[in-house]
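Usage

Read records sequentially. Each one opens with the input sequence:
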Amino acid sequence: MSQNKTGLLGGTFNPVHRGHIELGLKIKAAFGLDRILYILSAQPPHKKRQAMPAAELRLAMLKAALLPHPGLLPCDLELRRRGESWTIDTIRELKAAQPDECFYFITGSEGFLKIRTWKEYRRVLQEMYFIIVLRQAGHRQKVEKLLREEKIPFGRESENSGPLPAAFLHTYMSDYLELSATAIRKKMSHGQDVSPYVEKNVQKIMEEIKLYEEG
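and closes with the structure output:
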């Protein structure tokens, strides 16, 4: 019996936008994943100084955005656990609950290049497959260099993932690839239209409570 393959996509989702959704759909198809969990980072350790909406509100927007996509599922594990949201703790909890699941951690190349700042990052690299989306020109060489230094085998996606540890470098073209939540928040604060960038039900939530608006 083959293992179920689950992608893990973490983030503050402040707010969740069309780029997040498209990323999940493309990775799910490219790697033949059964589902992708969007893990809300309730208290991100690397963003302590950044004021952001309550985790419960960000989770509500995440649930609204993912509702039309059955294979993309919101996950509130880090919110329920409380405390700082470290990836290694989340992985241990998921693997303990689902020992037969095969996990793929999805991250953009800019985030992966900071992995040495993560808690127990070497353990993280050993615990699951990594799917690294190359978002900027020149990142491939930097990512490959880091993987070589950490002795992590890497290549392109394949049907046979092989033994752990392993990383897969993935590229795709999209108008949403460079979309950022920061830019969306800025547009909202200036009263600009963000409908091209966020789902209608997410925009409705933001407008109802005047989220990100100045004053």
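Summary fields computed downstream for this record:
- The chain has one domain: 5-173.
- The two ends are 57 Å apart (CA to CA).
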